[in-house]
Design a protein that fits this description.
alpha/beta, Rossmann fold, 8-stranded mixed beta sheet, 14% strand
Length: 556
């Protein structure tokens, strides 16, 4: 074994070094011979972990077993030994509006823990991850940051939509959104891959690529495409090259790379959950991202990608238009182009060959879908630590600045009951609290309420704010992640029905018409509401989780 190969096996050779002069020396060899490996392979070839989040619950992940085979081919071709293992991967769609949603965000930490523990326990030399959906994508990046060994991410890509039109429909010129009145049904999960819009799943896949942790176009290549399998094989080959070159996530996910990701987030109009996840991934890298960066870049970078809910296109169409490299080419003047990627090349080099294939899906800066970036942070006496809103998804631009009377509820369920009973009126601002990381616990999405509200054509000019989260598909003036959350005594806890609240998105403000003294007086007489928690994992999460303004990471 030459010196170069020993470096590639720096971690895995430690399995044998402590015991090579003991009677147990052949123990690990015996285990691996039991799965069909030969001693000469184990001694010479690097051992590569494939963290596959495949399961049969949802289309976002069901195809990952096939992609893992492609990764293995690439690893084997390049002289490595692949070891595939699995971890959990929940679906937000199944958990929407029920008790299951309280268990979704906490699984981000469980997934990261499980990958870290498996890789460290088995002393594997490098890592390839496969993931598609909401909490799973940031979780694999958090694990990569903790391990800081050569790692490459293979996103599962988007799925396709299927449209059924009403009888007598005469056709359309371009997209089905142009004829919504004639649409009988629309399904976003008709093929394997993440839901076809710019929700959290596709947003984080796109930002994983912008961070430099995937090969070019890996994020938007459709999950069922030939190219997706080719990218999986190429990623298997490239992980061996990363191992040879000693390139690790700390050389790729730098502060400048995170700034690139935020700028791309602005351009694509990504999910509000991106804020939570980028903060958490950066935390694992030892990088503190300030929430104000989102406001800084939202003023610089307009929303130029018209993928639903910001526009009428799907993520697969974004791939056809050039994908994330084409988006980055549009905003090239603002980016840190010297940032390294897992391709071994910098963005400056990668973007030289990028061409635009479609001017409407990825618009030029001079003709954006929205003049500012998709996601902004609001602060004020109702959200001293910040709140998050996707301004690009507000179709009624009169609602960018809005004042209304509060209607306060202590859970999403209460708000949904009130909506069903016609107790929510036009012009009101709905408050849904005790849905934060500690208060729920678990910081569930409030997407079910927003969907019901959106369907009510008789209720107009209604805004909503919560210390919980939203789905990336949410539209309208929906403000989430209000911090501090109600459970820990944030001002949202003392809002009463009829209080006047002002949302001022252009000036990044969220205020209640109360003086500081009035807020303190109400808080002095306040006690938190305790939601019943029987689950051991939820109880543990409630004790350890930090503020959403810090990424809702766990304290240790």
């Amino acid at each position: 074994m030459n010196e170069h190969e020993r470096d590639m096996k720096e971690r895995s050779k430690s399995i044998f070094e402590p015991i090579k002069d003991t009677p147990n020396y052949y123990g690990p060899y015996g285990v691996w011979r039991g799965v069909g490996l030969e001693i000469k392979e184990i001694d010479k070839k690097p051992l590569i972990g494939i963290a596959n989040t495949w399961n049969e619950f949802h289309p976002g992940h069901k195809h990952l077993r096939i992609l893992a085979e492609g990764v293995k081919w690439g690893i084997l071709e390049s002289g490595g030994i692949p070891f595939e293992f699995n971890t959990i991967a929940p679906c937000d769609g199944i958990a929407q509006g029920n008790e299951g949603m309280r268990y979704i965000l906490l699984q981000r930490e469980i997934i990261a823990d499980s990958i870290e523990a498996m890789m460290e326990a088995q002393r594997l030399d490098a890592l390839v991850t496969l993931s598609s959906c909401d909490k799973i994508n940031p979780a694999v990046l958090m694990a990569a940051a903790r391990l800081n060994i050569p790692t490459i991410c293979v996103p599962g890509g988007p799925g396709h939509m299927e449209i059924e039109f009403k009888a007598g429909f005469q056709g359309l010129d371009h997209h089905f959104y142009d004829a919504r009145e004639d649409v009988f049904s629309c399904h976003t999960c008709v093929t394997h891959g993440a839901c076809a819009f710019m929700g959290t799943a596709n947003s984080v896949q796109c930002l994983t690529e912008a961070l430099g942790m995937t090969l070019p176009n890996a994020a938007t290549a459709p999950g069922v495409s030939q190219m997706k399998y080719i990218i999986a094989k190429q990623s298997g080959r490239q992980i061996i090259q990363l191992l040879k070159d000693g390139i690790t996530p700390s050389q790729i996910m730098t502060r400048e790379a995170f700034e690139n990701a935020i700028m791309v987030d602005m351009a694509i109009g990504g999910s509000t959950n991106v804020v939570l996840h980028l903060l958490a991934i950066a935390h694992e890298m030892g990088i503190e991202l300030e929430l104000d960066l989102f406001n800084k870049f939202s003023k610089m970078i307009p929303t130029i990608v018209g993928v639903q809910p910001n526009g009428v296109h799907s993520v697969s169409e974004l791939y056809g238009a050039g994908g994330i490299p084409a988006v980055m080419k549009r905003i090239e003047e603002f980016l840190h182009l010297d940032c390294l990627t897992v391709s071994g090349k910098t963005w400056k080099r990668l973007l030289k060959r990028v061409k635009f294939r479609e001017q409407e899906i990825i618009r030029p800066l001079s003709n954006p879908y929205f003049p500012e970036g998709g996601t902004v942070i609001l602060k004020g006496n109702l959200a001293p630590e910040g709140a998050v809103i996707k301004e690009s998804a507000i179709k009624d631009k009169d609602m960018l600045t809005f004042t209304g009377n509060a209607r306060a509820f202590n859970s999403q369920y209460e708000a949904m009951q009130a909506l069903a009973a016609n107790k929510i009126k036009s012009g009101e601002i709905v408050i849904i609290r005790y849905e934060g990381p500690k208060g729920a616990p678990g910081m569930p999405e409030n997407h079910s309420f927003t969907e019901l509200l959106y369907a009510r054509r008789d209720i107009t000019k209604v805004a909503m704010l919560t210390d919980g989260r939203f789905s990336g598909a949410s539209m309208g003036p929906c403000i989430g992640h209000v911090c501090p959350e109600a459970y820990v005594g944030g001002p949202i806890a003392i809002v009463e029905d009829g209080d006047r609240i002002t949302i001022d998105i252009p000036n990044r403000r969220l205020d209640i018409d109360l003086t500081e003294a009035e807020i303190k007086e109400r808080l002095a007489n306040w006690k938190p509401i305790e939601h019943e928690v029987k689950s051991k994992v939820l109880s543990r999460y409630k004790k350890l989780v930090t503020s959403a303004a810090k990424g809702a990471v766990l304290k240790y």
